[in-house]
Amino acid sequence: MRALTVVPLKAGSLEVTEVPEPTPGDGELLVDGVALGVCGTDREMADGDYGWAPPGQERLILGHESLGRVRRAPPGSGFSPGDLVVGIVRRPDPAPCGACARGEFDMCRNGRYTERGIKQLHGFGSERWTIGTGYAVRLDPSLQGVGVLMEPTTIVAKAWDHIERIGNRAWFEPRRLLVTGAGPIGLLAALLGAQRGLDVHVLDRVAGGMKPKLVADLGGTYHTGSIADVAAKACPDIVIEATGAPRLVVEAVVNNAEAAIVCLTGVSRPGGQVEVDAGALSRDMVLGNEVVFGTVNANHRHYQLAAEALARADRSWLEYLITRRLPLARALEAFEPGPGDDVKVVIDL
User: From first to last of its 349 residues, what are the pLDDT tens digits of the chain?
Assistant: First the structure.
């Protein structure tokens, strides 16, 4: 069968290659791949920045934003042929730390976790794949066209889960949300903010195309100025930073309301230096009871929260997020720059 593979840490090694058919083990589903989302992590791995092949193998099957349909399920598993499923990406470490042992493997303390399509486990970028029933999540059949958005939605579902846990340290009644970056993570963060009834503001550098319309359709306000300008008007109680751009990260921390919560979801490249008045920053955070935290990956709970959020969302809005679809034979095109208003690129398997 065909799969999208890469030699980790080797730029230019991305290919669609022939790989052996997967054989499901005990307690595993055999799944026909439906679609695969491509994100910045995949592009960085294709560039040779990082990644780990399974032990003893040279190539890694890429892809962690999955969508598949069950072909074969073990008796009594709760799954049936035809079920629409996605696969949870991360697995606990073999000698579990305290977090992994309690199912919170997204918060692994020792770094010995593994991840499908990223670290030591083959991903979902193949015509067929297998997965343990405990790491498969069933989706509503109506999400077939957009279910590939599940994994990025889990990232923001976790972000909101933690924002609300932090907020509940005291009286918490947020009204205004600022999201920086109108990529898939930023727009899905805005969606979940709108579902919570917040006044949503999204900042991005693209002035036209799909992004302003997607924000407007949520009832939100789209901006292309600076964070300082937007924050001066909106005074956000919650900021979700989804670009990883160093200057925007700092500005997101500086420009917000009293007792604000700032969640960082964008992964920055090392080396970006920004001049900061650390004294003023520390003073404002202490006197304002502010919180800044980072988040990555998701556990079972966040997948369930994401599935519920997608089920509540307008299907046509979700469909507009997918701005390019490519067949597996043309998968390498998904790693090339698209138009400025590109949001999510999907490979049909």
Answer: 999 999 999 999 999 999 999 999 999 999 999 999 999 999 999 999 999 999 999 999 999 999 999 999 999 999 999 999 999 999 998 889 999 999 999 999 999 999 999 999 999 999 999 999 999 999 999 999 999 999 999 999 999 999 999 999 999 999 999 999 999 999 999 999 999 999 999 999 999 889 999 999 999 999 998 999 999 999 999 999 999 988 888 888 998 988 999 999 988 777 778 888 888 888 888 988 999 999 999 999 999 999 999 999 999 999 999 999 999 999 999 999 877 778 999 999 9
Q: Which domains occur in the chain, in start order?
A: 2-138+314-348 (3.90.180.10), 153-294 (3.40.50.720)
pTM above threshold 0.70: yes
Residue 121 structure tokens: 């486990």
Question: DSSP of 37-75, one letter per residue?
Answer: EE-HHHHHHHTTS--BPPTT-S-EE---EEEEEEEE--T
Task: Point out which residues pair with 241 in neighbouring strands.
Answer: 180, 264
